Amino acid sequence: MMDLISYCSVKHSIFPRSSSATVTGVSIDTAGFNECLVVLSSGTTAATGTLDVTIEGSKDDTAWAAIAGAAFVQVTPSNDEAVYVAKLNLGTNDANRYLRAVGTAATAASVYGVSFILGGKREPWGGDAAGAAFQLGLL
Fold first, then answer.
1. Chain segment 93-123, per-residue pLDDT in tens
2. Alpha-carbon gap, residue 59 to 21, rounded angstroms
3. Average per-residue pLDDT in the chain?
């Protein structure tokens, strides 16, 4: 029998914080997993502030690039204090074995955090041409 704890792993890339600058999250090794939920927990965004969160990928945990289409909607005071969830299909594409979030708060501070929930355990890590897809939802 497989329970939830043996099926997934939860990792923080950007720990909850208040920021008015760019924050580059810690990298997450996705080896052994097929899919990932990216969770943006947005607190209060100041009256004139905006928050943009994108996901970057790396093959070697050194050279990073934005994953095409892997960005959340911009958070503003009119849509803050919400939880945004996106699904990232990892496949076996080792071009994005490592993931991290990058949050850019502009004009004023935003309170937020970004976590990754890795699921669909598989072994071992392999590489092929499968790409990653990003699907956004709001909870």
1. 677 899 999 999 999 999 999 999 999 876 5
2. 26
3. 86
- Could you give the domains of the chain? 11-138 (2.60.120.1110)
Q: 35: which residues sit within 8 A by CB, 6+ positions away?
A: 87, 88, 89, 90, 118, 119, 120
Backbone angles phi, psi at 10, to 5 degrees: -105, 130
Alpha carbon distance 24, 14 (integer Å): 7
Q: Name the token pair of 45.
A: 């965004």
Q: How far is 9 from 106, CA to CA, in rounded Å?
A: 31
Q: Look up tokens 């497989």; give the residue.
A: 2
Using left for φ > 0, alpha for ψ between -120 and 50, and beta otherwise, residue 97 falls in alpha
CA distances from 73 to 28, 32, 53 (A): 22, 29, 8
